[in-house]
Amino acid sequence: MPHDPDHTEPPSDPALRAKALETILTEKGLIDPAALDALIDTYETRIGPRNGAKVVAKAWTEPDFLDWLRTDATAAIESLGFGGRQGEHMRVVENTEVIHNIVVCTLCSCYPWPVLGLPPVWYKSPPYRSRAVSDPRSVLAEFGTELPAETEIRVWDSTAEMRYLVLPKRPAGTEGWSAEQLKPLVTRNAMIGVEEAARPA
Amino acid sequence: MTLVEPLSATEKTADFSQSPRLPLDQAGPVFAEPWHAQAFAMAVSLHAAGIFSWADWTAALSEEIASATETDGEPALIADTASTDWNDQYFRHWLTALETLAAQRGLADRDQITAVADAWRAAHLRTPHGEPVTLV
User: Fold this and answer.
1) Structurally, how many domains does chain B consist of?
2) Closest CA to A136 of B7, B22, B89, B67
3) How many CA atoms lie within 13 A of A29 on its CB side?
4) Structural domain that includes position B80
5) For chain A, which has fewer Cβ within 10 Å, the N-terminal or C-terminal residue?
């Protein structure tokens, strides 16, 4: 790409506005750019779906922890060190042989960041937000998830007050597996509910 | 740009490339551009500083997304707009909601933001390529 050496190509309008807002807020002492960088780094590298996978694998292998998740998911999840912003008011919804849960936020894409990281692009897209509610089965089909016709699909609409984590069914053929062995089977999409947990290879 | 590390090899890739209506990327870019991350972090940081409650934030963001949907028609039609980059679309809403709250809380109004944004644009235009861009 040729560059005009006399100037630097300005970024896009929203990028300039974000930069401007940061400048103003920094000057007023309301934010600290170094703290912003640290925050971004945290969300990008230290939290993410692996946290949620740990929660699920523990629930699959420890009945006491599963009970705790059912009665007070926020506290149970926090006991593993996964708390904070958007991690309050967690509820775990459990898939069974007859019930399949799927999570959506129809308004703004609330998402349990501490256990799943930041939401994937498609989760925030208007088609997902509307169709997960109006026609969840077609959304599942697009993810390659085919459920028996008699399976009840429950759609959970997250809010600022309540965020959901799907507890997928433990895959067949994993009897006797440790939590460590099970963790890689727990995908982010399974914890949103658009897929089932991966099957053992 | 910044990518989230794929969860594991077992994370399947659904064949969404075939779907015109539900673009998806598996563990794809969380922030497609640096300003997405910047806007995200500012909201979290202002909340942490007690400038607004998280409920106020989600209400502002919801309102922004809802009004954009109203303007643009049915949700699926947003796919027909020039930007097919959902992440970008989403963070534009995010930034607008943030500007709205900043104005409501008396931190910065839109004209101020526009003025400083213009100053940054001018700073880029007068800075030879490769040198750091500064306001003064």
Assistant:
1) 1
2) B22
3) 0
4) 31-126
5) N
Give the bridge partners for A93, in sequence order: A166
Longest CA–CA span in chain B (Å) reads: 51
Q: What is the pLDDT of residue A10?
A: 87
Please list every residue in chain A whose beta carbon sits closer than 8 Å to the beta carbon of residue B15. 144
Instruction: Go through chain A and tell me how many residues it has.
Output: 201
Other beta carbons within 10 angstroms of residue B70's beta carbon come to 8
Residue B13 lies in a domain: no
**Cα gap A143→A70, rounded to integer Å:** 27
- Which member of A6, A11, A184 has the closest CB to residue B10? A184
- Residue B52 within a domain: yes
Q: Is B104 on the interface with A (CB under 8 A)?
A: no
For A43-69, give the DSSP string: IIIISSHHHHHHHHHHHHH-HHHHHHH
Superfamily designation of domain A48-192: Nitrile hydratase alpha /Thiocyanate hydrolase gamma (3.90.330.10)
For residue A145, give the 3-state DSSP assignment: coil
Contact A20, B113 (CB under 8 A): yes
- Enter the DSSP assignment of A10: -
Q: Mark yes or no for CB contact B38/A3 under 8 Å.
A: no
- CA A101 – CA A111 distance, rounded (Å): 15
CA-based nearest residue to B38, from A133, A17, A2, A176: A17
Surface-to-core class of residue A48, CB atoms within 10 Å of its CB (0-12 exposed, 13-18 middle, 19+ buried): buried
Yes or no: say if B10 and B16 are a contact pair by the CB < 8 Å rule. no
Q: Quick: pLDDT tens for A144-169.
A: 999 999 999 999 998 777 889 999 99
Confidence of residue A105 (pLDDT cuts 50, 70, 90): confident
* Residue B52 C-alpha, separation from nearest chain A C-alpha, in angstroms: 12
| Chain A contact for B103 (CB, 8 A cutoff) | no
